Amino acid sequence: MDATAPPTRCGDCPLRDRPFVAGDGPRRTNLVIVGEAPGQREVVEGKPFVGKAGGRLNEALAAAGVDRSAVYITNTVLRHPAGNESPPPREAISVCHERLISEIQRRMPRKVLALGATAGKALTGDSRPIEQLRLLRPVPSPFLGVDAEVRVTYHPSALPRNPAWPGRFDEDVGWLGEP
Fold first, then answer.
1. How far is the C-alpha of 135 from the C-alpha of 78, rounded, in Å?
2. What is the separation of C-alpha 2 from the centre of its chain, rounded to a whole number of angstroms?
3. What pLDDT shows up at residue 5?
4. Range of lowest pLDDT (53-67, 86-100, 107-121, 156-170)
5. Which residue among 47, 116, 148, 158 has its CA within the 20 to 30 Å range from the CA of 58?
6. What pLDDT, on a 0 to 100 scale, did the predictor assign at position 82?
7. How far apart are CA 152 and CA 155, in angstroms?
8. Please, which residues have CB within 8 angstroms of residue 132's CB and are 6 or more apart in sequence?
9. What does the alpha-carbon distance between residue 87 and residue 93 come to, in Å, rounded to a whole number?
10. Angle, helix 165-174 to helix 52-63, in steps of 10 degrees
11. Which residues pair with 34 in a beta bridge?
12. What three-state secondary structure class fits 100?
């Protein structure tokens, strides 16, 4: 199953009636980025990270010399939460977890960048704060079962909360461009 259609377990999800946005990018790639959930702009355009956070991500990718079209981008949950719900409900994350892991494994990446605590926790099973997860390099993932490094960084929408975070975010995205 690919993420072009809703996963079969969506009937168990509390977000099942919300808009669905599939992951986007190459079938095989060395680079995968995982966010939290699609936003309103993503629902309109049908692709992940095309809103304001996507613009900030694109800037960091360009600065790192990474062509966005070479990166597979998806979210921890594929349905837009109602209102400004952040993070998505735990039940939705749980229902989507098997799909997320399978989606990443099929791409056989070398590097996986988790944007934000929700994605970081989903990929590592580690519930420490984002500041601590970010410092682990690489973060062990008991789920992926592929030879991939995982790093956790801030979600681009959170960058205005702390003046130190934009530079750290750029550094972390820059890791994707390193050999």
1. 27
2. 16
3. 58
4. 86-100
5. 148
6. 75
7. 9
8. none
9. 9
10. 60
11. 74, 114
12. helix
Assigned token pair, 97? 């977890």
Residues with Cβ within 8 Å of 90's Cβ and at least 6 positions away in sequence, in order, are: none
Q: What is the pTM of this model?
A: 0.93
For the domain bounded by 8-177, which CATH number is listed?
Answer: 3.40.470.10
Distances (CA, A) of 136 to 75, 131, 165: 21, 9, 16
Between vectors from CA 137 to CA 131 and to CA 139, what angle results, nearest 5°? 80
What lies within 8 Å, CB to CB, of 119 at 6+ separation is 34, 35, 36, 75, 76, 152, 155
**Residue that has been written with the tokens 């990018």 in this structure:** 25
* pLDDT over 80 (residue 6): no
Q: Which two tokens stand for residue 149?
A: 């490094």
Q: What is the pLDDT of residue 1?
A: 43
